[in-house]
Amino acid sequence: MRLLRDWLAGIPAYLWSGWGAIASLLLFLALWEWGSIHYGELILSDPRSTFARLVELMQQGTAWPELATTAKRALIGFALAIAAGSFLGMLAGLSMTASMMSRPIITVLIGTPPIAWLVLALLWFGAGDGTPVFTVFVAALPIVFIGAMQGTRTLDGQLHDMASTFRLPATMRFTDVYLPHLLSYLFPAWITALGISWKVVIMAELLATADGVGAALAVSRSHLDTTSTLAWIAAIVGLLLAVEYLLLEPIKRELESWRDTA
């Protein structure tokens, strides 16, 4: 009952915290409408026409399979980047030598354009799911790695000494002492990597696959169909916002609830 009361009491604050995001989206829509009026429908379709086309695509059953394919590829690459980047980054953060040795590798990964990885992935995996998944993985990995490494490197030594003095079990040390600090670095890195994953998977599909939102964008581009192009963009952005605010944000709030009681 107490958990239920705490959850219900937190709903107003959660809803209020969303007003800033809603206001920014409304401002964006207003600027979009102004741009459509100023430049014309051929250059920039208005929001109402765009969302009407998106609803039409969904009713026809065209949008859902493409969105599902794109989301699957993006989330697989993103999950692999989280798993590998978080683990390797924490290992590197435990050793100054490993941290120094990994720095040039991470610089190379960040500095190499995703389009270059895409070309290599096409040669290695062909025009299938492997190409966009690999490209997403390589693009998101260094972001997650850096966040995990920095979080590990900046752990408070006094907290470590306190845990050793009180002989806390290893599990309690990780969950109650180390993990809260690590998450303050990991979650921003994960959210950044999620945005990168969405952008990279669309680019990879545009150039390398015959399905997914990227392929649909290629078709609408070839037909000079601005409204359909913007409808697909709105669909993938909406899916990204749903993953971030309906999946990652609730997990973040739950894991960081200790801040409210500190």
CATH topology call: MetI-like fold
Name the average pLDDT. 83
Annotation, overall tally of beta strands: 0
> How many domains in all?
1
Please tally the helical runs, counting DSSP H or I stretches of 4 or more residues: 12
What's the CATH class label?
Mainly Alpha
Q: Which term fits the overall shape?
A: globular
Order of helices and strands: HHHHHHHHHHHH
Head-to-tail CA distance between termini? 22 Å
At the fourth level of CATH, the homologous superfamily is MetI-like
Estimated radius of gyration = 22 Å
Poorly predicted runs of 5 or more residues: none
Judged by helices, strands and strand pairing, the structural class is mainly alpha
Helical content, roughly? Answer: over 70%
Sheet of most strands = none
Query: From the 3D coordinates, which CATH architecture would you assign?
Result: Orthogonal Bundle
Strand content: under 5%
